[in-house]
Design goal:
By secondary structure, this protein is mainly alpha-helical. Helices cover 61% and strands 3% of the residues.
Length: 143
């Protein structure tokens, strides 16, 4: 392959990397782990329990549904979890996670107010895994 052909091929690979689809599987995998951690394990971005339930009437409602009450797990009707799980959106500069339903937006704000900014943040391990996946995929795509 001559230099001109090599440059043409390399430019084609760079263009493929710029396509949002290139990043989607990397980002969506990390997002799925984040959803599971928050809504099933009840852990925040520091990898520790989100918090504990103090409201006895709410704890009673959770017990009635067979849901855990010893630590906060942000799952009750699954509406918030479902909205957050489907809330990975492409923006002009990358991807963002969140919720679309205004009711769930208020729930997220309430959880952050109650349990702190770390509630919905990525853990160090999630960030590291995301970066490692990206690095491997970039090397493969550009090689």
């Amino acid at each position: 392959m001559n230099t001109k052909d090599y440059i043409k091929e390399f430019e084609k690979r760079v263009k493929a990397v710029e396509d949002p689809a290139f990043m989607f599987d990397i980002v969506s995998s990390t997002h799925a782990k984040q959803v599971h951690r928050i809504h099933t394990e009840g852990k925040n971005g520091n990898g520790v329990a989100i918090g504990s339930y103090e409201n006895e009437p709410y704890k009673k409602k959770r017990r009635k549904k067979g849901l855990p009450t010893s630590t906060v797990i942000l799952k009750f009707t699954n509406q918030l979890q479902s909205d957050f799980a489907n809330g990975l959106l492409k923006t002009k500069t990358g991807f963002v996670t969140g919720v679309k339903n205004p009711t769930n937006s208020k729930k997220v704000e309430g959880m952050v107010d109650l349990y702190g900014d770390e509630t919905y943040k990525l853990t160090k391990d999630e960030k590291k895994e995301l970066n490692n996946r990206l690095r491997r995929k970039l090397i493969k795509a550009l090689s």
